[in-house]
Design a protein that fits this description.
alpha+beta; seven-stranded mixed sheet; 19 strands; binds flavin-adenine dinucleotide; FAD/NAD(P)-binding domain; 31% helix
C-alpha cells in the first residue's frame, strides 16, 4: 500500500496533524498500536488560553480560575477572571480528536504497531494475529510519543527526560493545587488536579534529579501529608521527552542514499511532533499543547512548502526557555529553592503572569 502521509501514533499530535491534512484533501493514514484511542498516563490539565478552542467545553471536566501554589514559605492563590486551567479525560479527548480527523477523511488503523522503518516505507504488525503489511509513503510523521520508533530510526538520542507519575483516585475536590516541595520533588512538583468525580494526584521531576522509584516513594509520603492514602492505589508512570533536536528531517544524502542519522532539513519529508520531537515542557511536563500545535503545523508544512515556520519558532523558543529553567534549577538544590520561592512571590504580586509557565504562546 502507498500513502501520501503516514502518521505513526494517534495521540493528540498525530490526530491534530491528520485532521488538518484531511481537511485539505490529503488522505493521511494514522497507525496506532493500541486498540482504543486516547488512553494515556496524564493528569489531563489543559491551559484555557492555549487549548480550549481545540478541546470544546463539553470535554472539560472541571475548570479553575484560581490556582493554588504551595511552597515551603508561601501559599499563593492566583486568580484570573477566566479559567486558567481545565481538566479533561484523555480518552474522551482522544475519541473526540479521532472523530474530527475521521470525519475530515483521515484513515486510522488501530491495533497495528510500527515494527520496522526504512528509507521508503515501513512494516506494521497487527496485535494478536501478528500479520504484517508494508506501507510506503511520501511523508512520514512520528507522533509516537516519548519512546518514538521514528525518532530512533532518525538516530536521535533522548537524553533529556522528565518522569511523570499519576494516581487517579475517586473523589470530588474543588481546588487545583501545585506543590513545590523540593524535599519530595527536587526541582519538580506535586499536583492535585480534580476531575469530574476523580482526582489526579501525581508528581513530575526531571530524570537527572531523581529516579522514578524515589519519586514514587516520595509522592506516597507527601500524599499522606495531604490526607491521601496512595499505597493501595494503582500508580501509572511514563517518561516525558523534552530533548528537542528539530522537527523536520532528511535521512538520505543528496543522491538519495540513506545516511546513519537524520539531519534537520527544511525540505525533509520525515517529521517529529509532540513528545517524539521532545517538545514537552522540561519545566512542567506539559505536552498536550505542544503536541497539537506541532501536529497542526507539520500538516501545514506538508500541504504548503512555503508555509511560515513562525508558529513553530515561537513554540520552540518557549520550549527552550522551559528546558533551560529545568536544567538550571535541577543543577543546584539551593538555586531551585530560591527560584521556586521567587517565582511564587512574583505570581502573588502579579509581576509574573501564570501563563509564562505555560507552553501556550
Ligand atoms: C504522569 C503524566 C502526567 C501528565 N500530565 C499532563 C498534563 O496535565 N497536561 C499536559 O499538557 N501534558 C501532560 N503530560 C504529558 C502529555 O501526556 C504528553 O506530552 C502528550 O500526550 C504528548 O502527545 P503526543 O501526541 O506527542 O504523544 P502520545 O500522547 O504519547 O501519543 C503517542 C501515540 O503513539 C502510539 N504509538 C507509540 N509507538 C507506536 C508504534 N510503534 N506504532 C504505532 N503506534 C505507536 C501510542 O500508543 C500513543 O497512542 C503528562 C504526562 C505524564 C506521564
Amino acid at each position: 500500500m502507498h500513502v501520501h502521509t503516514l502518521i505513526v501514533g494517534a495521540g493528540p499530535g498525530g490526530l491534530a496533524c491528520a485532521r488538518i491534512l484531511a481537511e485539505h484533501g490529503r488522505r493521511p493514514l494514522v497507525i496506532e498500536r493500541k486498540e482504543d484511542i486516547g488512553a494515556k498516563v496524564c493528569a489531563g490539565g489543559i491551559t484555557w488560553g492555549g487549548l480550549i478552542k481545540r478541546a470544546p467545553q463539553e470535554l472539560v471536566e472541571k475548570s479553575f480560575p484560581v490556582q493554588h501554589i504551595i511552597t515551603r514559605l508561601q501559599k499563593a492563590c492566583i486568580e484570573e477572571p477566566a479559567p486558567i486551567i481545565a481538566t479533561v479525560n484523555r480518552i474522551k479527548l482522544g475519541q473526540y480528536m479521532a472523530r474530527q480527523a475521521g470525519e475530515a477523511g483521515a484513515r486510522i488503523m488501530t491495533g497495528w504497531q510500527v515494527k520496522e522503518i526504512h528509507e521508503q516505507g515501513l512494516v506494521i504488525e497487527q496485535k494478536g494475529s501478528r500479520s504484517r503489511q508494508e506501507i510506503t509513503f511520501d511523508y512520514l510523521v512520528g507522533g509516537d510519543g516519548s519512546n518514538s520508533r521514528v525518532r530512533k530510526y532518525l538516530g536521535l538520542a533522548s537524553n533529556k527526560m522528565g518522569i511523570g507519575i499519576n494516581y487517579q483516585i475517586n473523589g470530588d475536590l474543588p481546588e487545583m493545587e501545585w506543590h513545590l516541595a523540593p524535599q519530595f520533588f527536587g526541582n519538580g512538583y506535586g499536583w492535585i488536579f480534580p476531575h469530574g468525580d476523580t482526582v489526579s494526584i501525581g508528581a513530575y521531576v526531571i530524570k537527572t534529579v531523581m529516579s522514578a522509584q524515589q519519586l514514587q516513594k516520595n509522592l506516597i509520603v507527601w500524599a499522606g501529608t495531604q490526607g491521601f492514602s496512595l499505597e493501595k492505589e494503582q500508580a501509572r508512570a511514563e517518561y516525558i521527552n523534552y530533548d528537542y533536536q528539530g522537527w523536520r528531517f532528511n535521512k538520505s544524502d543528496k543522491r538519495g542514499n540513506p545516511g546513519q542519522t537524520g539531519k534537520a532539513d527544511s525540505q525533509g519529508r520525515i517529521f517529529l511532533i509532540g513528545d517524539a520531537a521532545g517538545l514537552a515542557s522540561g519545566l512542567t511536563g506539559e505536552g498536550i499543547y505542544p503536541a497539537i500545535i506541532s501536529g497542526e503545523e507539520t500538516a501545514r508544512a506538508i500541504i504548503d512548502d512555503n508555509h511560515s515556520t513562525a508558529v513553530m519558532e515561537k513554540l520552540i523558543r518557549r520550549h527552550r526557555l522551559h528546558s533551560r529553567l529545568a536544567d538550571w534549577t535541577g543543577s543546584s538544590p539551593a538555586l531551585n529553592l530560591v527560584a521556586g520561592e521567587l517565582v511564587t512571590l512574583g505570581l502573588r504580586c502579579g509581576i509574573i503572569k501564570f501563563n509564562k509557565l505555560e507552553m501556550a504562546v
